[in-house]
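Ticket #4471: structure export looks truncated?
Reporter: QA, pipeline team
Priority: medium

Steps to reproduce: submit the single chain below to the structure queue and open the exported record.
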Amino acid sequence: MKIDRLLSIVIVLLGRRLVQAKELADMFEVSVRTIYRDIETLGQAGIPVVTYQGGGGGIGLIEGYRLDRNVLTEGELAQIFSALRSLSPITGGHERLMEKINSVVPPSRSRQFRSIASRQVVDFSPWGLPGASEQKLALIKEALEESVTVSFAYVSAEGTATARCVEPYTLVMKGQSWYLYGYCRLREDFRLFKLPRMKDVVKGAEVFTRLELSFGDWPWNDYPGERESLTEIILHFAAGDKHIAEERFDCSELQADGSGGYTVALRYPVDEWLYGFLLSLGPAAEVLEPEHVRQRLGERAAAVACKYHSGNLT
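Actual output as written to the record:
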């Protein structure tokens, strides 16, 4: 990705006084022309990159900016390293940048750097072998890098499929699921699409002009529906199932019921996801309120049990 290359160039320049454009081009497997465009981009971003002509010339940082490699502290570099390592199993392509970050750290401090970088590990990849989701992510990532549209059939929670053509902006990991945020041409507005509901994803050839969006425009920190549509759900866990409750919910959310069990109050939209989530808790959890959710969940649980009744096995 271009942002990886730009950051890598800065890190290389922090560690060396001058570098030839041809050397950078070979290092990142791009043309010399692309390197000069990258240098221009860095300059527009406020990084004081200068080009010296003639014998012994090259590309470097203005004198005094280097700050003895302390533009980023070891802790900050370790955080960047950890973030790249977390993304690599899914998005890939960060190994070279991780090597550059390692090269900036003095050998005498490398052991401490590795210790700091290993204190937090986030692995977004699923258990088991790579499957269709990873292929879908890779295709969307290509579309993001090339600023081209993607087309797919999107299946709603009710099972209705609609054909979508989307200008992709951001891949989002939210609630252990990947989402694509982009401009939907069908709805003529920005939408958040859950990847498992995207079928037959195809990368288009049409290039679009990406709009500049502020961080305040990102929608994934709030539930996309109306707050009034959230319903309070009261769950009960028996004393022997406390470990299951603590695995799914924060301990501070659990309220002792006085007889060894626990209750937890949640606010969720009543939809297909909710019933799937409640069923995933198995017999450990019982819905106490509201009554209509309790009744509907019982009907669904009975339907599941019916499928596995000995008389229905094939």
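Status: closed, not a bug. The export was complete when the record was re-opened. Leaving a note from the reviewer for reference: The radius of gyration is 26 Å.
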